[in-house]
From TrEMBL, chain A:
InterPro entries: Ribosom_reg. It is found in: Nucleus. Belongs to the RRS1 family. This is Ribosome biogenesis regulatory protein. One of its GO terms (cellular component) is preribosome, large subunit precursor.
TrEMBL record, chain B:
InterPro entries: Brix, Rpf2. The keyword Nuclease does not apply. Its main location: nucleus. This is Ribosome production factor 2 homolog. The lineage of its organism: Eukaryota, Viridiplantae, Streptophyta, Embryophyta, Tracheophyta.
Length: 267, 309
């Protein structure tokens, strides 16, 4: 009984999604009884499932330790993505400069030989090679002023360098965020949500289109829809004249108002 | 003072946030299940059933949210915020009112902004617990389901076309290339009218048949309900175009030939040399001699000057 039915209908099988669709089926009188509808649906679904299985099990399986594994084709029905395509990170200021100058990166070793202590020390972190704080003696130069502390000077300079580096890092991240390539674990405070707020509370910069639409809405927000506002007329004279109906209506209304006024003055 | 760059303090939090980064090929979409101010018993059951079907990659909120109004311009900000915080791109929002009883809003997001919405009403609902069947046939959690869509209305009616796409997105599970042949569940959706879909969830039984292809048998296990499409919002065309973009395929390398003997070969093309238009380099011997002699003469004249002084 099922054979002639299967032969006539062509099912669309999307193997990537394991989906089968019968576009030619009509649910006619089956809608009468719930149980009958259910039976009919189950029967049709069995046929469709069989159609998918026919194609699926026909693929050659590779034997894996968990059982036969089959390679599915990519899905036929295209579904929208959930996030934008990953954008490449724009090069940082240093990377641009290095490219221009032809400076290549060289890998640093984790440990370096320290001549002073005659031992292998780390290049960074605790007990590192050229630590600024380990310098015991700074020789006085001819250019040194009497009251200046050279050690304090060195710490000041280091602080300044660190601040500059942080500023540069922020600039690089801002530039990446503008393109849309900010790394997902970093959040820039300027765009971050306030503690109690939702996105709606952030003051958004109005765009030109938004302002134009709001201006349009505001100008027609009078009781008569802005038809008798002079500024509205001046701005949209062309479109109004083009629509002669509304223009004649305006003329008629003007006449009526004038008549009413004259009647009032009369009486 | 708030730091300008906020980074998570622990490595675990950092790894979790790195999972939220956009990928070239997307495989898994997480679902957020929540409800509004008022829900009915039926709707609670529906939401918990959907959560059980999608246990591994779904988040279910238990509190009521009264500031969510889908289909209204200001009422979706909360949904977008939750989508951002939980990294979910599929939203199932349930609510119950006199005008819209047993209302489910299925929504999808793109970049954590609402992409499209379908509002459906649930009727004739039968929960998962009410079905009696052999427990050995129960489909395993996380197995890839089959889909059976029946009815011409899925092609002709706009709302049903949209609903079909959303249902596929919601229940399809992880997109994989290699599949083990342990398929054990199927979602059956029949379009019984231009606005209604009768949805069933069945377990598959593979019976021995003569050939290598097993015979399919369906056993109803899961929730079954009638979905009546009430409202729907299609995505904005520009957003749709952007969301449908696929990853660019690697460009075909030109001028690269593989030779079994010599390995990779490429042709070097030399442009025609126009001898008459060539510029002379500074390395020519004649020029060098001239310059050398000019230098000598200059020094000689300098020395003479110094001597005279």
């Amino acid at each position: 009984m099922t054979d002639p039915i299967a032969a006539t209908s062509n099912y669309e099988v999307d193997l990537g999604n394991l989906m089968a669709y019968d576009p030619s089926h009509h649910v006619t009188a089956a809608a009468s009884n719930r149980a009958e509808l259910r039976e009919a649906c189950l029967q049709k679904a069995t046929e469709l499932a069989q159609a998918v299985a026919d194609v699926l099990f026909a693929l050659s399986p590779n034997e894996d330790r968990d059982g036969p594994i089959v390679r599915l084709p990519p899905p036929a029905t295209r579904l929208p993505r959930e996030k934008h395509l990953p954008k490449p990170k724009p090069p940082t200021k240093w990377e641009q400069f290095a490219k221009m100058k032809g400076i290549t990166k060289h890998k640093k070793n984790k440990r370096e030989w320290d001549e002073q202590t005659k031992s292998w020390k780390r290049t960074y972190g605790y007990d590192r090679v050229n630590d600024d704080r380990d310098i015991p003696i700074i020789e006085a130069k001819a250019t040194d002023e009497p009251g200046v502390d050279p050690f304090a000077q060195r710490t000041e300079e280091k602080k300044k360098r660190v601040e500059k580096q942080e500023k540069n890092r922020l600039e690089n991240l801002k530039r990446a965020a503008k393109v849309g390539a900010l790394p997902s674990h970093i959040q820039l405070a300027a765009k971050a949500l306030p503690i109690t707020g939702i996105k709606a509370d952030l003051p958004k910069k109005s765009r030109k289109e938004d302002l134009e639409s709001v201006a349009g809405m505001a100008s027609t927000a009078t009781a008569s829809g802005g038809k008798f506002d002079e500024s509205y007329l001046v701005r949209n004279l062309q479109s109004i004249l083009a629509n002669i109906e509304s223009f004649s209506l305006w003329l008629k209304e003007k006449e009526l108002v004038a008549k009413r006024n004259s009647n009032m003055t009369k009486s | 003072m708030v730091a300008a760059i906020r980074v998570p303090k622990s490595q675990r939090a950092r790894r979790e946030l790195l999972k939220h980064a956009p990928k070239l090929v997307e495989t898994n979409k997480k679902t957020l299940i929540l409800h509004g101010t008022k829900t009915s018993a039926v709707l609670n059951s529906v939401l918990s059933d959907i959560y059980h079907l999608k246990r591994d990659n779904a988040v279910k909120y238990t509190k009521k949210n009264d500031n969510i109004r889908p289909f209204e311009s200001g009422g979706e900000t909360s949904l977008e915020f939750f989508s951002l915080k939980t990294d979910c791109s599929l939203i199932v929002y349930g609510s119950h009112s006199k005008k819209r009883p047993n209302n489910l809003v299925l929504g999808r997001t793109y970049d954590h902004h609402i992409y499209d919405l379908v509002e459906i009403g649930v009727e004739n609902y039968k929960s998962m617990e009410s079905f009696v069947y052999d427990k050995k046939l129960a489909p395993k959690l996380g197995s890839k389901p089959l889909f059976a869509f029946i009815g011409e209305h899925f092609e002709s009616a706009e709302e049903l076309k949209h609903l079909k796409e959303v249902l596929l997105d919601l229940f399809k599970g992880e997109v994989v290339e290699n599949l083990n042949l342990g398929v054990d569940r199927i979602y059956v959706c029949t379009a019984i009218s231009p606005t209604t879909v009768y949805m069933m969830h069945c377990a598959l039984r593979l019976k021995r048949s003569g050939t290598s292809i097993p015979r399919m048998e369906l056993v109803e296990v899961g929730p079954s309900m009638d979905l009546v499409v009430r409202r729907h919002r299609l995505p904005v065309e520009s957003l749709r175009k952007e969301a449908m973009k696929t990853a660019e395929h690697a460009k075909k390398l030109k001028n690269v030939m593989k030779d079994p003997i010599h390995g990779r070969l490429g042709k070097v093309y030399m442009p025609d040399q126009e001898v008459g238009k060539l510029t002379l380099s500074n390395d020519i011997k004649g020029l060098k001699r001239e310059r050398r002699e000019a230098k000598k003469n200059k020094e000689h004249s300098k020395k003479q000057k110094v001597n005279s002084e």
